[in-house]
Specification:
Elements: H1 9-36, H2 64-81, H3 86-97, H4 103-115, H5 144-148
Amino acid sequence: MSNVHSDSQFRDEFLTGAARAFFTMAYVEYVESVESGDIEDDYDYPRAGSGEAWEDYVPSELPPNAFALAGQLWAQIAALNGAAGVYTLNARATEADGVVPDAEKFGWYLAMEAMGHGVSWFDNHASFDSKLPHMDVGSLTFDPEAYRG
């Protein structure tokens, strides 16, 4: 369930996708740090096995600051691409692919690219001109209690 409720369904879905990406990648890093002993925590975190998607193991409730990070991404995209920001990139993506992007997936992939995870919207879609910020998100971005769900 989304914590976002604006006057734009596109924006709500984009922010939810971006928030989910930020939280998922932080969760992965946290769980791996616990398993390696870099972080002391005796909770038994669910984790993805070989060939499984981490998204299936992350708590479904996103912490509020995941949405705050998504909002920062939204604002930084506007700063880099003009006032219309994400709407401009959405229009460019629509023109490049000939179909309107799924807003939640669009948010997920732009957040992944902003974090530098090597996953990009352009892996499966036509390219278009865009500028994205770099955002640092890691295991300590969220309170460890958020990872327990």
